[in-house]
Amino acid sequence: MGCVNGKCCLRRWYRGPHSQNPSSSRHANSSRCQIITDPTTLGSTQVPSHGLLLQYSALSHRGHYPDSPDRENQDSFIIKTELLSNPNLHLFGVFDGHGAFGTECARFVRDRLPEVLCADSVALIADPAKAFHEAFLTVNSELHDNPDIDDLMSGTTAIVVLVYGDMLYVANVGDSRAVAGVLSGDDSVKVEDLSSDQTPFREDEKERVQKCGARVLTAGQVEAAEAAAIDGAHIPETEATECASSEADEGDPPRLWVRDGMYPGTAFTRSVGDLTAEGIGVVADPEVRAIRISPSHIFFVLASDGVFEFLSSQGVVDMVSKFSDPREACTEIVSESYRLWLEHESRTDDITIILVHIQDSSESGSLESHQVIQTKIKDERFAIQKLPEASSEMDSCFPLSDSSKEHSLSCVTPSPAGTVS
Fold first, then answer.
1. 109 contacts 69 by C-beta, under 8 angstroms
2. CA–CA dist 72, 104 (Å, integer)
3. Which pLDDT belongs to residue 153?
4. Residue 190: how many CB atoms within 10 A of its CB?
5. Residue 23 — φ and ψ, nearest 5°?
6. pTM confidence score
7. What's the CA gap between 173 and 156, in Å, rounded?
8. Nearest CA to 301 among 252, 254, 260, 334?
9. Where in the chain is the domain with CATH 3.60.40.10?
10. Distance from C-alpha of 9 to C-alpha of 14, rounded to nearest angstrom
11. Chain centroid to CA 80: how far?
């Protein structure tokens, strides 16, 4: 169910007569915490303070590792609605674990972060950004102290969105990403970055970790430097650093290394866990952005770098815009990400996405002022026309299907990596 010419059929004020009512769908989530294993799972929640309806879906797919066919999915995600029993407070998060205990790290942060955020309800409501900073640092300390998880060389990135009324508070640690789709005047959908990847590609992050003692080199550069040292030669670090960018273009990104060793080799500058890397500036303190939801914001996406490794932010927004059903969009993006990984490499990363559509929850008023019809033109493409306030019903551009049939792809097998409550 797609729209043509890059035009989007997702309208904040739009709801066709054949569209599925998420609250009545048998796929809708109950109030009890459950694990999403069905790629067609559809959930919804309202933000009554601002008349918004959030319709969401999520999908996590285990990576393909030929040398480790039984390797666990190290990604996790959480969708937690009505935090503190507040109908205007909702949390969405994706966590990308790495290292030998990456799965455990990601799940620990997934489970503990909401608990720590909610432990001081007054602080969370008064200053969500400050609450995020304090919660991440607290969870990081707890992870270090956890006797069952060795986070010396393991950890997780995190991208978390807190919806509070008409505000999005986006907390980012690492290289997972959040983007929004914004409807422009020409009916196309433009990307709005809700986060900025924290990697050595960012000059400010690179300078910060270098001041903490990190060497910033590609794997190829650090191996060459180590080999030269064995032979009694010396490659100036400035020379090695200058070569790093060209190697990064060939698929060898700059990484962080201790001064006297070939570890830890992280390609990000912030994470939760990674106790060794903490000594060279890899911190758990998030960057937090506050974005007010406007009538032009029609959806937002959170995803691990398994999605954004080969898809651009605008590319993801374009793909979402072709589908009125978030379940189909998630499946399509995961499938395309998987395909692109195998096109470029012999393996794939774990791939996780949460998609949240932002709609007007009121059917009266918004429908009366924004009536649309779908008109077929000569080349069999579809055009959207606004009508005067006359009709009480409207046809769907591409309606949500009433069918509960699963939309599965041969290369996509969902993993029980996330929780929804």
1. no
2. 10
3. 98
4. 15
5. -70, -25
6. 0.78
7. 9
8. 334
9. 34-196+284-420
10. 9
11. 15
Q: What are phi and psi of 383, to 5 degrees?
A: -120, 145
Within 176-251, residue ranges assigned H as helices are 203-211, 219-230, 237-248
Tokens of 227: 């080999």
- Is domain 34-196+284-420 in CATH 3.10.580.10, yes or no? no
Q: Residue type at 95?
A: F
Q: With the C-alpha atoms ordered 159, 284, 209, 240, is the resulting torsion angle positive or negative?
A: negative
Q: Tell me the β-bridge partners of 358.
A: 54
Residue 196 to residues 52, 118, 171, 201, 321, Cα–Cα distance (Å): 26, 26, 10, 11, 22
Cα separation, 161 vs 290, in Å, equals: 10
Output the six-digit token pair for 297.
């914001």
- Residues with Cβ within 8 Å of 186's Cβ and at least 6 positions away in sequence, in order, are none
Alpha helices in 274-386 (DSSP H): 275-278, 305-308, 313-321, 326-344, 366-369
Neighbouring residues of 254: CB distance < 8 A, sequence distance ≥ 6: 199, 200, 201, 206, 216, 217, 218, 244, 245, 248, 267
Q: Bridge partners of 54?
A: 45, 358
Query: Considering the chain, what percentage of its residues have pLDDT values greater than 90?
Result: 67
Give me the amino acid identity at 407.
Answer: H
Tokens found for residue 197: 């990847």
- Using DSSP's 3-state secondary structure scheme, residue 355 falls into strand
pLDDT band, very low/low/confident/very high, at 30 (cuts 50, 70, 90) = very low
Taking the CA atoms of 143, 149, 153 and 154 in sequence, report the sign of the dihedral they define. Answer: negative
